[in-house]
Amino acid sequence: MRKALLLAVAVAAALAAFAYVQFEQRKAFENCKLTLVDVRVSELGLTSAKLTLVIDIYNPGSITATLDRAEFDVYADGTYLGHGTIPQRIDIPPNATRRISVPFEASYAGVLSVLKGQRTWTIKGTAYIDTPFGAIAVPFEVKK
Fold this sequence. Notes:
The protein has 144 residues and is an alpha+beta fold. It contains two helices and nine strands.
């Protein structure tokens, strides 16, 4: 009986430690810096353009930062181009930069007016950090 109790306490402690580490990694994302590196035209269709957003995520912290997913809106010179997502989990090592390429589709209604020349690109969104106690929403804005 005593061994079973010790085993249960050990398992509970291990689960608590695991949950704490996971929580800290996700909380560390709040200190990350996002930089829009490039916006590339991947494909031109009849009604829309497929763009690739190249984003650097810098983690200045001492532990791995985790982004579980994100949703965002893209603007060029204030013109709304559309909504996008980062559906997959991304881990950013401590004191390192992780470059990601995010596909994004924009309707021509907004694209045609902004593809000419230099533009100010803005990405406004929310990163979601999953925890054992629910998701934490972290708003972000990136300009280039």
